[in-house]
Design brief:
By secondary structure, the chain is mainly alpha-helical. It contains twelve helices and no strands. It is globular and about 55 Å long.
Amino acid sequence: LSFYQFLFNLLLVILAIVLQLPINYILISILSCTGIYFMQINNISLIINFNKNCISYSISYIISAFILVLFYLFSESNLIYVCIALISKEIIFIIYNLMILKFKLLKFNVKWFDIIRAGFIPMITTAIIALNYRMDVLMLDYLNIDFFLIGIFATGLALAEYTWVIPDIFKDLLLSKNTHNDEIDLINVSLRISFSLIVLISIFFLFFGKLILKILFGEEYIDAYTVTMLMFLGVPFIIYVKLIGTLFIVHGKWNLYFKILTIAVIINLVFCLLLINKIGINGAAIASIISYA
């Protein structure tokens, strides 16, 4: 079913080429096409063979990095080259995993309608997660906050989100393990390790954050320090959501997950409206922390 969806998206890419749309639109269409199939294949591969999934990730990212280095050394700067590298990474990952999974094209089955119906709530839930993570930026724009301040906020948010990679490392492993048994002990260990690392990173940024911002983004972005520190306060809640959420996913408790996240989005929206006009971008950060909690 995922492959048929990929073919449909591929037809849209071909249509964009036929209509001679700008190259940027075509590349974005290709990224959407490969990106969706990449995520679907990744979820299947995680459950069937976690070790080979890690190998395919490593191979695809190394090749992608090598392509980027070649573009950096032998061509002018252009975002098109970045898109090409990303597309290459996803295509390599997809092909490798299809070989592992011994891919076979199945005939259309009426039971697939049941799969589509069962997948509706997970789809909406995933969209709500993405909305909650970007509600603060959307509300800053809606409330006509200065674009420079939004840029400051986005910088702080992006830096804090880099720490999300820590629970994500354990999330993939837990998703694979919990499919077969509820690995409560492994979840507890993952929570302790993730939380400890986040505390250490937060302390380090507390003392050296302004210097890091100055080196990475320039002196004008030092103002993102406060936002970044505030967003670090919300990371522990993200850890619990990501790691304990694997149990909800493998047990099919998407309805409960959907209700909890819907409440979080509403809370984020309400507190953004209450706080942004009073304390600006720091209010958006506080609203996000409350919704994560």
